[in-house]
Design goal:
It is a single chain. Helices cover about 40% and strands about 15% of the residues. It is α/β, with parallel strands linked by helices and about 300 residues long. The strands form two sheets. The protein has a seven-stranded parallel β-sheet with strand order 1-2-3-4-5-6-8, sandwiched between helices. A two-stranded antiparallel sheet has the order 7-9. Helix 7 runs parallel beside helix 9 and helix 9 crosses helix 10. The radius of gyration is 18 Å and the shape is globular.
Length: about 300
């Protein structure tokens, strides 16, 4: 635990590697079963068509070119000396095992890459892929990031997620049985979801023994179904102060052993709303200040 009043992933990186380590976001050209017809064709209602990749990814470049550019940027801006290859865009376990292995090995061949972070969906983890990930877990510092977004099946259906909560539970269970570290993605403020339902997601994360969580506020991006709902006035977004209070409530209920990798979604070039989310440093300070005002910290209300 830090003076931020919650467990940070940055502190874990320093503990493991003893220096500044930076994630390098990559787009390996994978698709998504919720877009190619296996689970659906329209994708999640908030997805802008380029996946969750960071805006700085050089999407038309090779993996090695993306990695090189990302390392140069991170070394200059953050003084990082070690790097984690972060397969971020779309579903990075969605493909035949030989292709997955070739992609992962390509970046691990760089001696400055100290580990892998693989973002994917819980419905993209068949047994042979789990076996492959277990092998990388033995070889390098591996994390798997899984999109959950909500622990309510009704919400998952409403956002056209393409899988249910039980699918997430089965995927996490299979990964944890092999000792693989898991980070869950959660979105607060999804349409039709009550505050109680959002906070109930902590109960699932705690029960499954999730290692880390990324908490996002709901973004409205150009070209999404969510943008049309926002334009017609049928979508209500959380205001900044309401979100700050909700995040603090969420942290208080979360097992203090779960590392926090993110509290706010990063901005996008296609962002329509909310604009308050672009002031990240202010928002992070506001969360710490609110927890201090309450006299609480991550896990203060855990167990319930």
């Amino acid at each position: 635990m830090t003076d931020l009043r919650y467990a940070t992933f940055a502190a874990e990186l320093r503990r493991v590697f003893g220096c500044r380590v930076q994630r390098i976001p990559l787009d390996a050209g994978f698709s998504c079963p919720n877009r190619d017809g296996l689970a659906g064709t329209d994708g999640c209602i908030y997805c802008g068509g380029i996946g969750a990749g960071a805006p700085e990814i050089l999407r038309n470049a090779s993996l090695i070119e993306q990695l090189r550019a990302g390392k140069e940027f991170a070394a200059q801006r953050y003084k990082a000396t070690k790097f984690l290859a972060y397969f971020q865009a779309f579903s990075n376990t969605y493909g035949p095992v030989d292709r997955l292995q070739a992609v992962y090995d390509e970046v691990l061949a760089d001696p400055e890459v100290s580990g892998l972070i693989i973002g994917t969906r819980p419905d993209c983890l068949p047994p042979d892929v789990i076996d492959l990930l277990a092998d990388y877990h033995r070889r390098t510092w591996l994390w798997v990031e899984l999109g959950l977004q909500s622990s309510t099946d009704r919400t998952l259906a409403l956002i056209n997620r393409g899988h249910d909560v039980d699918c997430f539970v089965q995927a996490v269970t299979a990964l944890k049985e092999r000792g693989i570290r898991v980070c869950a993605h959660v979105i607060l403020g999804l349409p039709g979801e009550s505050r109680e339902e959002m906070l109930a997601t902590t109960e699932l994360l705690n029960r499954l023994g999730i290692d880390a969580v990324k908490i996002h506020h709901l973004h409205v991006l150009t070209g999404t179904r969510l943008a049309e709902e926002y334009r017609t006035g049928t979508l209500t977004l959380l205001e900044r102060d309401d979100y700050l209070g909700l995040v603090c409530d969420f942290l208080e209920r979360l097992d203090p052993r779960i590392m926090i990798q993110r509290l706010f979604g990063d901005g996008s070039k296609t962002l329509i709303a909310p604009q308050w989310g672009t002031k990240k440093s202010f928002l992070l300070a506001a969360v710490t200040n609110e927890l201090e005002r309450r006299g609480t910290r991550q896990g203060s209300a855990y167990p319930y």
